[in-house]
Specification:
By secondary structure, the protein is an alpha+beta fold. The chain has 11 helices and 14 strands. The strands form 4 sheets. Strands 1, 4, 5, 6, 7 and 8 form a 6-stranded antiparallel sheet that branches. The longest helix has 15 residues.
Length: 279
C-alpha cells in the first residue's frame, strides 16, 4: 500500500523545506531549494523514500522540483491529502448527519485528537500494551517482551524489548517507536490481536471496535484507514454514533460523553477541555 501515486496533487500543511535530496541530518543550507508555504499545492513526481527516520516525497511546485518531508522529526504533519479547510467541511457534514451542532462536533473532535487534529498522510497509531495483554493467550511470552504499570494500567508506562534480556524501550516515544513495537508484537502474536489493541487516527478509535464500524476484522479497519484521512475523521463520528454517545453531546452532557469515551478517570478533565474549546 502507498498513500500517493505520481501525478497526484497534495497539500503542504506547514512551512516546509524543499530539499535537493532526501534527508536533513548533517546537511548544509545549500541543500534547501526553497521554503514551501502552507496550503500550497504540490504534485507527487515519484515514489516515497525513507531517510533520517522521515518519509520523503519527490514533489514539483511553482517551477521547482525537490524533496519534501511528510512530517517533521517530532511527528508534526507537513504534507496531507486535504487542507484544514476541507477537514472542517468533513466535520461539519458529519455533524449534520448526526443532527449535532457543528461547533460541538468540531470542539469534541479537536479535544479528542489533541495535537493529532492536523491533517496528515498516515494514521497516527498507538499500541495499548495493557489492551494487547487482554487479547493474547501466551502470557509468559508477553511478559518476556512487553510490560505495563504493575498496579494499575497507566497509558504512559508501557515498554517492549525484542529479546528476553534486551533493553526495555518506551512504546509511546514517537511513531517510530510505536511502529517498532507493533511490528514486534505482530511477529509474536499475529496481526489480529495486535490491531485490535491499536488506536487509529485523530480520534484514536481502538481497533477492537472494528465491528461497530462495519469491518470484518481490525486488520481490515487498519488497511482501510491507514492512508485515508477522510475515513479516519468520519470513522470517529461513526464510532461515537454506534457507541450511542451522540445523545450526550446533543444534551451538552460532556461529562457523561467523556466518561464513556475517555474513561471514568479522565471524565472531568476531558469534559473541561470540551467546554473550554466551545468558548
Amino acid at each position: 500500500m502507498t498513500p500517493f501515486a505520481p501525478g497526484e496533487t497534495v497539500y503542504i500543511i506547514d512551512y516546509t523545506n524543499l530539499r535537493r535530496s532526501p534527508g536533513y541530518v548533517n546537511k548544509s543550507k545549500t541543500d534547501i531549494i526553497s521554503v514551501i508555504t502552507p496550503v500550497t499545492q504540490v504534485i507527487i513526481t515519484g515514489a516515497v523514500t525513507l531517510q533520517d527516520q522521515l518519509y520523503w516525497w519527490p514533489v514539483a511546485t511553482q517551477g521547482w522540483e525537490g524533496w519534501a518531508a511528510e512530517a517533521s522529526p517530532i511527528d508534526l504533519p507537513l504534507v496531507a491529502a486535504i487542507t484544514p479547510a476541507e477537514q472542517r467541511t468533513l466535520i461539519h457534514d458529519a455533524a449534520m448527519r448526526l443532527r449535532l451542532d457543528p461547533k460541538v462536533a468540531d470542539a469534541v473532535f479537536r479535544v479528542e485528537a489533541g495535537p493529532w487534529a492536523i491533517p496528515r498522510v498516515r494514521a497516527m497509531l498507538r499500541l495499548e500494551v495493557h489492551v494487547l495483554f487482554d487479547h493474547i493467550t501466551r502470557v509468559q511470552e508477553f511478559r518476556e517482551h512487553f510490560r505495563f504499570g504493575p498496579v494499575e494500567k497507566p497509558h504512559n508506562h508501557q515498554y517492549w524489548r525484542n529479546t528476553f534480556k534486551g533493553e526495555w524501550l518506551p512504546v509511546h516515544l514517537n511513531q517510530w517507536s510505536e511502529q517498532a513495537a507493533i511490528d514486534h508484537a505482530i511477529a509474536l502474536f499475529g496481526p489480529e490481536p495486535v490491531w485490535r489493541s491499536v488506536s487509529f487516527g485523530p480520534g484514536q478509535v481502538m481497533g477492537r471496535h472494528y465491528a461497530k464500524l462495519g469491518y470484518t476484522s481490525a486488520l481490515a479497519m487498519y488497511e482501510d484507514w491507514v492512508y485515508n484521512y477522510e475515513r479516519q475523521v468520519l470513522g470517529f463520528f461513526r464510532y461515537i454514533d454506534q457507541a450511542e454517545l451522540v445523545g450526550f453531546l446533543r444534551d451538552a452532557n460532556y461529562w457523561r460523553f467523556a466518561y464513556y469515551y475517555n474513561g471514568p478517570a479522565n471524565a472531568n478533565d476531558y469534559a473541561r477541555r470540551i467546554l473550554q474549546a466551545l468558548r
